[in-house]
Amino acid sequence: MNIKPLLQDPIFSKITALADAQGKEAYLVGGYVRDLILRRPTKDIDVMIVGSGIEFAKSLAGEMGGKTNLVIYKNFGTALVQSGSTAIEFVGARKESYDRDSRKPVVENGTKEDDLQRRDFTINALAASLNATTFGEVTDMFGGAADIDKKCIRVPNDPDVTFSDDPLRMMRAIRFASQLNFRIEDGTYDGITRNCERITIVSQERITDELNKILLSPKPSAGFKLLFNTGILSLIFPNLVKLEGVETRNGKGHKDNFYHTLQVVDNISTKTNDLWLRWAAVLHDIAKPATKRFNNKSGWTFHGHELKGSKMVPGIFRELRLPLNEKMKFVQKMVLLHLRPIALAKEEVTDSGVRRLLFDCGEDVESLMILCEADITSKNEYKVKKFLKNFENVRRKLKDVESRDKIRNWQPPVTGEMIMQTLNLRPGREVGILKVAIREAILNGEIENDKDQAVKFMLSKAKELGIKS
Ligand code: CTP
User: Fold this and answer.
1) For the domain that residue 190 is a member of, what is the CATH number?
2) Is 40 in the pocket of ligand 1 (CB under 6 A)?
3) What average pLDDT does the segment 351-368 reach?
4) Is residue 20 part of a domain?
5) Beta bridge pairs of residue 310
6) Is the CB–ligand 1 distance for residue 120 below 6 Å?
7) Does the CB atom of residue 166 touch ligand 1 within 6 A?
8) Range of weakest confidence among 240-254, 381-395, 451-465
9) What's residue 325's pLDDT?
10) Which DSSP letter does residue 46 get?
11) Which of 47, 220, 291, 352: CA 20 to 30 A from 463?
C-alpha cells in the first residue's frame, strides 16, 4: 500500500530532505496513518525515527529556524516541533517489555519492526515511509490495512500479553470500536473479558479520559454495551451497572433503566456534542435503584430520584476525577430538574409553572428541554408523538413568558439594600421575608417583574406583616 497522494503537508518534504541527508529512516506512525487511510480528520502527527527522535527534531527545528518551536520531553524521549498550526511529535523507534506488576515498560532502542510490534492494535501499527525512495509506502506487518477495510479492532499479538502489559488498551479497543463503528475481533474481545480485572491498576485519569471519548462518540451506547458485556463497566462505574435489570412483582415490572439510560444518551448525542449534557443523560436516572419502591396499587415507583440523583453527582464526579466546578453544577442541575418539563407538559401549561422553570433553570433551559426530549424512549409511537407535541407547547410557552417577563437571568427588581432603605430597616429576618415574598409574587404572576409594582407590593406586604421601621 502507498499513501503518497495523502501526504500533502509541505513539512513532510522538509523531513524527507533532512532524513535522507542524515541517512536516517523516518516514518509516519500511529493514529495519523490510520485516520488518513480512513479519510477521517487527522490530529497529532507522530513521526518515528530509527535512532534518536530528539536529535532529529533538534536539527529539523534548527533548519527551519524562524517561528519554529521546539519542546523536548526528556522523560518520554520525545520532542515536539511546532510550525504554524502543524505540530509533529518525534520519537525514536523503540522496543518495550513490561514487568507484570508495573505499568512502566522497560524501553530500549529498537528497529522499525520492534516499534510496530509493541503497538496496541493492527490498525495502529502502520508506518508510512517519509524517505524519498520509498515515500508513502506503508509497512503493515499485521494486516492493519485489511482490518481498516473490514472495520475490525484486533491486537497484533497474544491478547493476554497486550492487555496485561497495558490494561488501558482494553478501554482503547472499546473506544475505537465506538468512535469508528468497528467490531472487536473475537480473540481480542475474549482477551478483554479474561483480563478485565487488570483495569483496576490503571489510573483513574486515564480511565476517565477514555470514558469521555466513548461518551463523545457518535453512538455512545455501542461503547457502553461493550464495557458492560466485557465486565469492565462494573469495575469502573458500578453505580451505572446497578441500573441494569428488571424486577417483577405481582405481575408488575418496570423498564430496564440501564438500557433506557443508554438510549437517552444515544438520543441526546444526535442533538448535542456537549460532553456535560451527555453526562447529564448518563446520570439522569442514577438514583433509581436507591429510590425504588413497590406499591400494590401503583406498582414500581422511584419517587425523589431526581433530587437524590443530583446529590449523588458530586460523589460520582469525585470518584471519576471529573471536574468539581461549574460543569458538575450544570450536570447536577440537569439531573435535579429533568422531570420538571414533563410535569409541565402533562397538565395545562400554566404561566406560573413556566416562570418557575425559567427561574430555576436560567440560561440552561434549552439544555434541559433537549435532555427531556431525549428521555422519551417509549416504543409506543402514539405516546412519543404526544409527548413531543406537549414539549413543543412547553417550548412555545417558555419563549412567550420569557419575552414578557425576562425571568431567565432573574435579578430582583427590588434588592435587599432598597428594602432596607425604603423601610428604614436594619439587616435581618424581615428583609429576607420581604425579598422572598416579592419573588414569589412575581413567579406566581400576582405582580409583574417590574420595579414600581415590586415596591408597591413590598409596602403593602410590610404593612400586612406588621413590619415597622
Ligand atoms: N499506543 C499503544 N498503546 C497505548 C497507547 C498508544 O500501542 N496504550 C500506540 C498506538 O500505535 C497509537 C499510538 O501509540 O496509534 C499513538 O497513541 P495515541 O495518540 O494515544 O492514540 P491514537 O491512536 O493516535 O488515537 P487518538 O489520537 O484518537 O487517541
Assistant:
1) 1.10.110.30
2) no
3) 89
4) yes
5) none
6) yes
7) yes
8) 381-395
9) 96
10) E
11) 352
Residue where a domain terminates, one of 204, 236, 268: 236
Cα–Cα distances in angstroms (integers) from residue 190 to residues 138, 156, 185, 281, in the given order:
29, 14, 9, 30
In 3D, which of 302, 326, 300 has the Cα closest to residue 313?
326
Tell the residue number behind the cell numbers 430555576, with chain if given.
360
Strand partners, 26: 49
Give dist(CA 309, CA 408) in Å, integer.
24
| pLDDT score recorded for residue 98 | 67
Ordered DSSP codes for 411-458: --SS-HHHHHHHHT--SSHHHHHHHHHHHHHHHTTSS-S-HHHHHHHH
CA within 13 Å, CB half, 362: 8
Q: Which helix (H) or strand (E) holds 106?
A: strand 106-109
Domain that holds residue 37: 4-148
Q: Is 118 exposed, middle or buried (0-12, 13-18, 19+ CB in 10 A)?
A: buried
| CA angle (43 as vertex; 37, 49 as ends), nearest 5 | 80
What spacing in Å lies between the alpha carbon of 342 and ligand 1's midpoint?
Answer: 43
Q: Read off the pLDDT of residues 395-429 as tens digits, 9 standing for 90 and up.
A: 888 888 888 777 777 778 888 999 999 989 889 89
Q: Which of 120, 126, 211 to mutate to test the pocket of ligand 1 (most atoms within 8 A of CB)?
A: 120
List pLDDT tens digits, range 5-50.
999 888 999 999 999 999 999 999 999 999 999 999 888 899 999 9
**Closest residue by CA, ligand 1 atom 13:** 30
At 53 the pLDDT is 92
pTM of the predicted structure, to 2 decimals? 0.88
Pocket test for ligand 1, best of 116, 119, 180 (most atoms within 8 A of CB): 119
Domain-embedded: residue 363: no
Q: In this structure, what CATH number is given to the domain that contains residue 71?
A: 3.30.460.10
